[in-house]
Amino acid sequence: MKKSIALLMMAVLLLLAACGGEAKTAGEVMEESIKATEELESYSADMKVDTEVMGMDMNIEAVSDITHNPDTLYMDMSMGMTGFTMDVEVYVVGEEAYMKMFGEWVMMDAEEIVGLEGFDQLNQTELEKLNDFIDHFEMTEEDGMYVLTLTGEGEEFQTLIDTYLEASMGDLAMDPSIEEDLYTDLVVNSLKMELKIDKKSMIIQEQSVDADLSLDGESYAIKADTIISNVNEVEPVAIPDEVKDNAVTEDSLLDFGFTEESLPLEEIREIVDYTVPEATFVPEGFELTDSSYYEDEMIEMVYLSYDKDGDNYFGLTVYPSKEAYVEAFGEVYEDESTETISINGSEGVLEVLDESFLFLTWEHEDGAFLELISEGTDITREILMEIAEGIQ
Predict the structure, then answer these.
(1) Among 1.20.20, 3.30.70, 3.40.1000, 3.90.1200, what is the CATH number of 257-389?
(2) Which keywords does UniProt give here (predicted)?
């Protein structure tokens, strides 16, 4: 009996010693993940980014195929924000890039597509950045994964969300004034990041970020989730001939067939072949200050601006039809923050971003599709509805 107990105790000690030898620290896991990623050839990524900026919601859903050596990417993305959604396709092979916006393929330089790096999370730059914060990660294990979790606050953590900022803001991030504000005045109030790393491949399988930020006293929040799949199973992306053959340059896209002109409303009505209504109820102090006609290859529209002062205005945009609007911009933006309402018997979508910014879309009885936007505390929800119901 004593011999059996001794053997059992020895076996338990050996088992504990073996388990202790296999235990890894968060730093060791990250180091191995970086090394494994150096050998990564390809993968697919499904990313969702929800951003709230000063009460305005923006969301991105993107599915990407990415290869390294050669560096190629194909991305199918949908972007939604107040008033519209936009579908975007991107092909990138080396420095050659093609982007499809508003139904038109545009030839670009890959470096000109701001925020593109944010959709390739498994690269050495991003992983080295994570490694710099390894002492802030806590690690657990579940279902064949190492789970690394970081929480923190303060300016030192801003570098961990830079790529998400650029991905969500796109070209805005290139504006010198905005960029200066972002990287100087941005405050990280709280940040939570979670990584799930496969124990066998040591490749990150899931990554999530939840950040509460502030900029110049205004709220700014980012929530992002990325799921990795098809590791080393994606073939290098090739740009289809039909994309190359039909693509235009950026300059020709901006210049081709575009008209923007301020004209009296009566002259605009003589130009277009659809009804252009106007506001018959205008709150005291407001007046029609400008009427403009816009046209390009994708859409035409009329914009009427009613101003009171620098802080209070409302604008009415008139499109030929809802079908024309959807073809150019995608489906009307709706989510949990919007509300379906009735305007003279027509169904509309209202979004109240805050007390001073309201956005309303609906189909007019004559077939035109209308957007009514107001900014300023002088126009309440009730006044906006009165303006909308008086448009004819």
Answers:
(1) 3.40.1000
(2) Signal
